[in-house]
Amino acid sequence: MKLTLDLHDVYNRSQEIDRALAQVMDEAEQKKATLVEIIPGKGSGQLKKRVLRYLDRKDVKARYHRLEKDAHNSGRIFVHFRWK
User: Fold this and answer.
1) Alpha-carbon span 39 to 66, nearest angstrom
2) Which of 10, 40, 47, 81 could serve as 16's disulfide partner, Cβ 3.0–4.6 Å?
3) Quick one: pLDDT band at residue 2, thresholds 50, 70, 90?
4) 21, 54 in Cβ contact below 8 A?
């Protein structure tokens, strides 16, 4: 199962960005999703950096298996989960 989070609508509202990221991580755990696609868009890259900082937090990092930046589209980030 794959979940998608498009951040284009909330790109300039920092609290909503964090809330949306937390919600998609919670949903991935509840539904045992194997992949979450986060779309910060290309733009200046500031939103992507913010998302990567969020995903690099120790408490968040413990929730997923690995992180992948799309090699063909710099506006996408893949978060992979492994369930036992």
Assistant:
1) 17
2) 10
3) very high
4) yes
Query: How many residues does this entry show for the chain?
Result: 84
Which helix (H) or strand (E) covers residue 34, if one does? Answer: none
Q: How far is CA 60 from CA 23, 45, 56, 64, in A?
A: 12, 21, 7, 7
Domain architecture of the chain: domains with CATH = 2-80 (3.30.1370.110)
Distance CA 56, CA 31 (A): 22
Dig out the tokens for 58 from the structure.
């120790």
Asked whether the predicted pLDDT for residue 52 surpasses 80, the reply is: yes
Q: Which two tokens stand for residue 26?
A: 């919670």
- Give the separation between CA 44 and CA 66, rounded to whole angstroms: 25
Q: What is the pLDDT of residues 20-31, one digit of tens each?
A: 999 999 999 999
